[in-house]
Amino acid sequence: MRQIFLDTETTGLYPDQGHRIIEIAGVETINRRPTGNHYHKYINPEREIDAGAQDVHGITLEFLQDKPLFKDLADDFLVFIQGAELVIHNAQFDIGFLNSELGKLGLPAVTAVCGSVVDTLKMAKDARPGQRNNLDALCRHFQIDNSRRTLHGALLDAELLAEVYMALTRGQDSLIIDWEHELASSESIVLSENRTALRVLMADEEERAAHDVYLAGLGDVEKPSW
User: Fold this and answer.
1) What is the pLDDT of residues 31-66, one digit of tens each?
2) Average pLDDT of the residues in 145-152
3) Sequence-separated (6 or more) residues with CB below 8 Å from residue 194
4) Candidate list 38, 152, 181, 211, residue with the active-site label
């Protein structure tokens, strides 16, 4: 299965108020193994960044001035996520921003392009009800090193999210291992049933004659019913 662990940074919290994406990153895995393939872009939002948002990610408008616009990279982004399962922490937030950006360009929504979307925040809340389930809290819980995360950054957060997801779904690995063990056991049984047939040695004439003499000596003894 191809999965992409996705994260974005934005100018604020609300796309319907004109806020834009300023960073986007996706980390690819296939069958739960990292491929080394990733997507990472900074984006010029053509608008100011809210002070609160800048405190979170540390990205300034000055830094973004020479970066591409979303319209310049939208097609490449859609190709990258084509058919994949997207894994996102608080998916509603990121999908909302992505669909807002794509909608401005008349492009299809994320869910029309990717295979499916998994929200790890919902997964964590189901697994750890009543506890803090932000990315930092989950890294602490699963003993994942997040010491480099002094500020939010889309690429680092996507990488950490991949580790958190693997930890959240670790039980699925054991189920697969158990299934493979059962399959291997059943295969060995089939092999034992298909062992080489025994050789059958037919009696020769002398042996058959001796047997007939033996039967004649039994006289009128009743033969068994079997």
Assistant:
1) 999 999 999 999 999 999 999 999 999 999 999 999
2) 89
3) none
4) 152
Among 24, 20, 22, which residue's Cα sits nearest to residue 7? Answer: 24
Residue 139, in any domain of the structure: yes
How many whole angstroms separate alpha carbon 10 and alpha carbon 43?
A: 10
**Does 53 fall in a domain?**
yes
Q: Domain for residue 101, yes or no?
A: yes
CB-CB neighbours of 117 under 10 Å: 16
Q: Give DSSP secondary structure letters for 31-89.
A: TTEEEEEEEEEE---SS---HHHHHHH---HHHHTTSPPHHHHHHHHHHHHTTPEEEET
Mean pLDDT, the chain, whole residue set: 85
Best CA proximity match to 121, nearest among 99, 93, 81, 148: 93
Kind plus residue range of the DSSP H or E element containing 95: helix 91-104
Phi, psi of 212 (to 5 degrees): -65, -40
Of residues 31 and 214, which shows the higher confidence score?
31
**Residue 151 — pLDDT band, cuts 50, 70, 90?**
confident
C-alpha distances (whole Å) from 195 to each of 70, 175, 190, 202 are: 65, 31, 9, 22
Can you give the pTM of this predicted structure?
0.75
pLDDT the model gives residue 150: 82
Decide if 19 is catalytic: no
Q: Decide if 88 is inside a domain.
A: yes
Report how far residue 1's alpha carbon sits from residue 6's, in angstroms, rounded to the nearest whole number. Answer: 16
Show the domain range for 129: 2-175
Q: How many CB atoms lie within 10 A of CB 16?
A: 7
Residue 81 has pLDDT above 80, yes or no: yes
